[in-house]
Design goal:
Elements (H helix, E strand, L loop, with lengths): L1 E12 L2 E12 L3 E5 L6 H9 L6 E6 L2 E2 L5 H7 L1 E4 L11 H11 L10 H18 L15 H13 L5 E5 L7 H14 L4 E5 L3 H7 L2 E6 L2 E6 L1 H6 L1 H8 L6 H5 L1
This protein binds adenosine-5'-triphosphate.
Adenosine-5'-triphosphate (ATP) binds next to strand 2 and helix 1.
Pfam families: ABC_tran, BCA_ABC_TP_C
Keywords: ATP-binding, Cell membrane, Membrane, Nucleotide-binding, Transport
Protein name: ABC transporter ATP-binding protein
Length: about 260
């Protein structure tokens, strides 16, 4: 089943088409990675999908609903959450407080119990479950700012999944991580896939090839190609983009 469909998306900055008629889709239950060299337009595309930037053209549908003109918070309500490259956690609050706030923010009607105490207990249970999912149970009482970088990123992921998204956008989740933290993040993303589709923007190719069911390669704002990890690794044009060749492969994309 197709969950997200981007159709002919366009974003221009002045004369520069940072997103140039991009079409691609993310299926339910899939990890779809977006890769491409610096300046290819990955962040711009993620900002268009999450609604931080308005598109100049094209459409976006999520689970059949047209979300092209939705503000970011309406996209979250429709099932689309994102993590940021810069963490969005409340640094002076504890892990538990962060998670409780996130659960409360997205609680809607599901935690409206007749008894206040029952409601509070249900919120606490949901927040503790989130801590468990991102393996931060032991850090519940720790002030977020004192967590190591990798744990802060996990908390950021927990805040995003508190909204129970159908699709999670992860913008460079491994940025700034060492090998141990990266491996933990790979394991976390793999577990999350059981409950939601994931659109992954990541420079760490090892992580991309380990995780992605499908990969789309962006070059100069256009999709060069989409395929499985094996197909992308074997693609001569993609190799040319990353390894460099005598002829500029982007010319073919620009044409
Ligand atoms: N707000 C903006 N105003 C003008 N130009 C912009 C703006 N944001 C991005 N660009 C330009 O759009 C193009 C795509 O940038 P974008 O940040 O989306 O690429 P990227 O693939 O995410 O790069 P990186 O991998 O370095 O993060 C670049 O040429 C960039 O300079």
């Amino acid at each position: 089943m197709t969950l997200l469909v981007a159709h002919q998306l366009v974003k221009r900055f002045g004369a520069l088409p940072a997103t140039d008629h991009v079409s691609f889709s993310v299926n339910a239950g899939e990890i779809h990675a977006l890769i491409g060299p610096n300046g290819a337009g990955k962040s711009t595309l993620v900002n268009l999908i999450s609604g931080l930037l308005p598109a100049d053209g094209g459409t976006l549908t999520l689970d059949g609903a047209d979300i092209t003109h939705f503000a970011p918070h309406r996209r979250v309500a429709a099932g689309l959450s994102r993590c940021f490259q810069v963490t969005s956690i409340f640094a002076r609050q504890t892990v538990g407080e962060n998670l409780l706030l996130a659960v409360q923010a997205h609680a809607g009607s599901s935690f409206r119990f007749a008894q206040r105490r029952d409601s509070d207990l249900a919120l606490l249970a949901a927040a503790q479950e989130l801590a468990r999912r991102v393996t931060l149970e032991a850090d519940w009482d720790r002030v977020a700012a004192t967590l190591p970088h990798g744990a802060q990123r996990k908390l950021d992921v927990a805040l995003a999944i508190a909204a129970r998204p159908k699709l999670l956008l992860l913008d460079e989740p491994m940025a700034g991580m060492g090998p141990v933290e990266s491996a933990q993040m790979v394991a976390l993303i793999r577990r999350l896939r059981e409950d939601m589709a994931i659109l992954l923007i990541e420079h760490d190719m090892d992580a991309v090839f380990q995780l992605a069911d499908r990969i789309s390669v962006l070059v100069y704002g256009k999709v060069l190609t989409s395929g499985t990890a094996a197909e992308i690794q074997a693609d001569a044009q993609v190799q040319a983009v990353y390894l460099g060749t005598e002829t500029d492969p982007a010319d073919e994309v620009r044409a």
